Amino acid sequence: MVSRADATAAGNTAQGILLVAVGVFSLTINDAMVKHLGETYAIAQVVFFRMLCALPFVLALALYMGGPRVLRIRRPVFHFGRGLIFTVAAFTFYLSLTLLPLAETTAIAFSGPLFVALLSLPLLGERPTPRQWLATIAGFIGVMLIVRPGSATFTLAALVPLVTALGYALFMMSARFLRSDENLWATMAYATAVPLICSALLLPWFWQPPEPAHWPFFIGSGIFGGLGISLITQGFRVGVASAVAPFEYTGMIWAACFGWFFWHEVPSALTITGGVVIAATGVFLAWEHQRASRQRRLPETLPPP
Asked: Which of 221, 173, 207 minimizes the C-alpha distance to 37?
């Protein structure tokens, strides 16, 4: 017989999976719009409008979830530093969309969890298990299958989304140092505001008047980008991480479909294989982290001898 707690947990996980799946689809739409805009406009201008359109959406969520008081922060320098990391990740990812096929860029950028595992020891003092080390090595082998250094198809452009993945890993790891009383939506608002300010400072050198036909793409990228991040964040909050994490990688499938449909990009067999390896290792690392967390909590739940 299924208990009420088990039914609630199953319902929350199903809700989390749905939120993550829809969020990833929304982000892929954003990526496709950014790739289209990047063919005409400078990356700084694309980032500016992306963040400008997303910020009101994120601010509205923050105010709805906690009211005006949630926007007050005690460590502005820390949040500004996180915002700078996110700025670098955004610029490099949007640049890579203009240089590489959509599916290839997405697959390499999804190697972020591998950098988290790699940097957890020197930055967080956490010691990965042997299985986590093996999974991380396997994941980077998957990256090499896509990048293919030393081959005739290798270009330096393939290294750009790796910078994105590293920035994403540092941004996520820095969340460990957030205060427990800091609102999640407020931190997202500041992470959106900093790239907006940085890109605005660059606009005088890169400004190009947007064509009327491109305004829906500028606005749409902000809406779908903000919506996607918010849905994924909420999905991980309500669902079990190890259960919802695999559905993040559906973004690779959508990226391949969008790239084929709009730009006639056909991923090579090695790119597909590398993407599958990256997704598999990412899912395993999420599951392993969840299992280790449960084991660390287990002694606290046992009755005293």
From this structure: 221
Helix, strand, coil: what percent of the chain each, to 5? Answer: 85, 0, 15
Count of domains for the chain: 1
Query: pTM here?
Result: 0.84
Tell me, rounded to whole angstroms, the distance of Cα 284 from its chain centroid: 17
From the CB of residue 228, how many other CB atoms can be counted at a distance below 10 Å?
23
| pLDDT tens-digit map of 123-176 | 767 777 788 888 888 888 888 888 877 555 567 788 899 999 898 888 877 777
Quickly tell me which residue has 């790891």 as its tokens.
173
Residue 302 DSSP SS3: coil
User: Within its chain, how far is the Cα of 69 from the centroid?
Assistant: 27
Q: What is the CA radius of gyration of the chain?
A: 20
CA distance 145 to 279: 13
Amino acid (1-letter code) at residue 44: A
Distance between start and end Cα atoms, the chain: 31
In a domain? residue 6: no
278 in Cβ contact with 110 (< 8 Å): yes
The residue whose two tokens read 């559906």 is 250
Q: pLDDT tens digit string along 47-63?
A: 999 999 888 877 887 77
Q: Is residue 5 part of a domain?
A: no
**Domain, as residue range, for 191:** 12-208+218-301
Asked if residue 213 is part of any domain, the answer here is no
